[in-house]
Design a protein that fits this description.
Blueprint lengths: L2 E5 L2 E4 L4 E8 L6 E8 L6 E6 L6 E3 L7 E6 L4 E6 L8 E9 L8 E2 L3 E6 L1
Parallel strand pairs: 2-11
Antiparallel strand pairs: 1-3, 3-8, 4-5, 4-9, 5-6, 7-8, 9-10, 9-11
């Protein structure tokens, strides 16, 4: 079965950086949409960044544009989220997710999450 395992979360001061990783098993990332979502306490889940199967198309929520970069290493079947200039409002549980190429809005596969805490 498909498995997604995130790592790289932690505590950091404002303006610091973190890089999240998500290793995906039993799913070809070059044939899948993949992305990062986050959920802060008391708030709904938010789509943060996504990358298309070809890698040519990316999406970022406005609040992270210019600070976060989503990328992928197909050889390692790993998805990344480089987060720079972190702000306290970025604090949340971050999840990676994957969707089949023929159903890009159907995020069927999820990791267990990794916590990011930014202190000001």
């Amino acid at each position: 079965q498909v498995q997604l395992v995130e790592s790289g979360g932690g505590s950091v001061q404002a303006e610091g950086s973190l890089r999240l990783s998500c290793v995906v098993s039993r799913m070809d990332l070059s044939a899948s949409y993949t992305g990062w979502f986050r959920q802060a306490p008391g708030k709904g889940r938010e789509k943060v960044a996504t990358i298309s199967p070809s890698g040519r198309n990316t999406y970022y929520v406005d609040s992270v544009k210019g600070r976060f970069t989503v990328s992928r290493d197909n050889a390692k079947n790993t998805l990344y989220l480089q987060m720079n200039n972190l702000k306290s409002e970025d604090s949340a549980m971050y999840y990676c997710a994957a969707a089949r190429s023929w159903s890009p809005s159907n995020w069927s596969y999820w990791g267990q999450g990794t916590q990011v805490t930014v202190s000001s």
